[in-house]
Amino acid sequence: QTVVTQEPSFSVSPGGTVTLTCGLSSGSVSTSHYPSWYQQTPGQAPRTLIYSTNTRSSGVPDRFSGSILGNKAALTITGAQADDESDFYCALYMGSGIWVFGGGTRLTVL
Amino acid sequence: EVQLVQSGAEVKKAGESLKISCKGSGYSFTYWIGWVRQMPGKGLEWMGIILPGDSDTRYSPSFQGQVTISVDKSISTAYLQWSSLKASDTAMYYCVRQDGSGTFYFDYWGQGTLVTVSS
Predict the structure, then answer these.
(1) Which residues pair with A82 in a beta bridge?
(2) A37-94 residue pLDDT tens
(3) What whole-number distance in Å separates Cα of residue B13 and Cα of residue A110?
């Protein structure tokens, strides 16, 4: 079964830059997986940040950006703010209507 | 305004059946609607998805045979149901709309339905 891998946790200083990644247990992530990224704060439903690798969802600040880095999808936060502290999930489209989420990365801003 | 409004929290006993709902509004109910599980303190898990027009349904292998996804397009509502709940089904369940413009992602999320199953 396909496993989508993410760093369990990451820490960044306020104003700093951090890159979270989203990989596959077997193979490389490509644009054909339509990588998307979702942010979740405690007690809230997730919100969509990035789709189709690098397109920001409406209202998402431009300090969030997406890309493919090597064989993984990546979410970069430039100029991290305190309210960016949350859980981040990637999702990959595997074809035939099937999706897989990554395990999520808990981002701490301190 | 596009909205996905889910049914309220449920408290059930193991072995009971359950059907939770997700009603779409503010758009044509023709987009794929999926379900996502989040167990307490854990990450998101994609369960499956349905196309309201023809009820074409796809399941994650992890959930195939464990749940049933259905839809009543006449009332713009999708459902997630269990025939016999287990304590391990205790989780928050979100419905999601998959964007229909050919870019694959979940553009709208429901507010979540908390299901608590006691053994």
Answers:
(1) none
(2) 999 999 999 999 999 999 999 999 999 999 999 999 999 999 999 999 999 999 999 9
(3) 42
* Minimal Cβ distance to A48: which of B44, B58, B107: B107
| Distance in angstroms (rounded) separating the CA atoms of residues B104 and B101 | 8
Predicted pLDDT at B103: 81
Residue A15 has φ and ψ, to the nearest 5°, of 85, -10
Of B104, B110, B111, the CB nearest to A93: B104
Confidence class for position B102, pLDDT limits 50, 70, 90: confident
Contact criterion met (CB below 8 Å) for A68 and A74:
yes
Query: What are the chain A neighbours of B104 within 8 Å (beta carbons)?
Result: 34, 36, 51-52, 93
Cross-chain residue pair B105–A100, CB shorter than 8 Å: no
Q: Which of A1, A57, A104 sits opposite B43 (nearest CB)?
A: A104
What residues form DSSP beta bridges with A74? A21, A67
Q: Is B87 helix (H, G, I), strand (E, B) or coil?
A: helix
